[in-house]
Amino acid sequence: MMKIVILDGYTAIGRSSECHPNMFGYGRVARDEDKVNPGDLSWDGLETIGELTVYDRTRAEETVERIREADIVLTNKVVLRRAEIEQLSRLKYIGVLATGYNVVDIEAAKERGIVVTNVPAYSTMSVAQMVFAHLLTVTNRTEHYAQQNREGRWSSCEDFCYWDTDLTELAGKTIGIVGLGNIGSRVAEIAQAFGMKVVAYTSKDADSLPAGVKKRPMYELLKESDVVSLHCPLTQDTLHLICHERLQKMKPSAILINTGRGSLVNEQDVANALSEHRLKAYCADVLSEEPPRADNPLLHQENAFITPHIAWATNEARMRLIKTAVNNVKAFVEGRPQNTV
After folding, report:
1. How far is residue 327's CA from residue 118's CA, in Å, rounded to a whole number?
2. Residue from 245, 290, 316, 334 carrying the catalytic annotation
3. pLDDT tens digits, residue range 316-330?
């Protein structure tokens, strides 16, 4: 029977719990009572294929020992470099539990004849939704007013309403989208539904863009946009794409949103722009280091709105993720690999 090991199954299947620094990196074999979290998801689809072992978390130094006898390995964030892959004589398949697959040395896997797959586009709707959750947080500040009213402010108000923040309408504003793949395109559709003008920095030809989307060079997009949303991959060319020089091109009233990769921005430069009122708000679901250091310059900025990399984590997206991951394994076992990288 094939041996299947999941190196870091907790984030895909587990419910959230309070995070302590010593929790990260520790793994355990799933017991029967762990396999289905009440009201959440399970890995049961893999148990019909082979002998399944699930670790919540795996430290780098534990990786090889845990998968030395495995035929099939699934990983989300646990890195499989050449050094690990060359020690795994039985390994035939690596399934990445994400769309990005930079956690695997693809060349080393190819040399060993190991099939590598990913899960494309499972989180498009959820990430696009998070973009607007962040944007509306800034423009409408619902969490601010909800908290004040829990504390009794409205009850003690002399008038039928009050507001102490700027309230902004999206209709007529311009959103600049950097990267017009699946998620960027969905963001464009939603923005248009709000009545926003959409411009994009993209490698696509101008005549192939969705209706109403205008192509712009980067500096024009930054200068023109009231909102800038980042949806490009992280490469050597896009590392710190948003930096001091480019932040200077943006409107002081602009909102910058990052649900792509933390290192698309120079975080210190963004923090400085916020503190100097050269940028209205920074909204991010990703940081350059995750979990972040306590001294990350963005964590204590009043107008930085940071969520803990959860845009992908709706129940619906995780259901799609697990279903596709299981189907990827089944297809491989049946001799017809799909979603290979």
Report:
1. 11
2. 290
3. 999 999 999 999 999
- Token output for 21: 């620094």
Distance CA 114, CA 131 (A): 36
Taking the mean position of all CA atoms in its chain, how far away is CA 246?
23
Active site residue 290: yes
pLDDT the model gives residue 44: 80
In angstroms, rounded to a whole number, what is the distance separating the alpha carbons of residues 312 and 65? 30
Give the span between the Cα atoms of 129 and 149, in whole angstroms: 26
Which residue among the candidates 141, 216, 231, 261 is catalytic per the annotation?
261
Tokens of 139: 């423009």
Q: The dihedral of CA 15, 20, 25, 30: what is its sign?
A: negative
Q: Which H or E run includes 160?
A: none
Are 75 and 97 in contact by the 8 Å Cβ rule? The answer is yes
Q: Quick check: is 57 catalytic? A: no
pLDDT at 23: 33
First-to-last C-alpha distance (Å) of the chain: 26
Q: Is 112 a catalytic residue?
A: no
Rounded to the nearest 10 degrees, what angle do helices 124-140 and 182-193 cross at?
40
Q: Is residue 87 helix, strand or coil? A: coil
Q: Using H for helix, E for strand and C for coil, what is the string for 42-70?
A: ECHHHHCCCEEEEECCCCHHHHHHHHCCC
CA distance 250 to 228: 9
pTM of the model: 0.89
Q: Which residue has 């708000």 as its token pair?
A: 281
Structure token pair of residue 114 = 């190991």
Pairing state between β 213-215 and 227-230:
unpaired
Nearest to 35 by CA among 59, 52, 49: 52
Rounded Cα gap, residues 179 and 209, in angstroms: 12
Residues of the chain falling short of pLDDT 50: 16-39
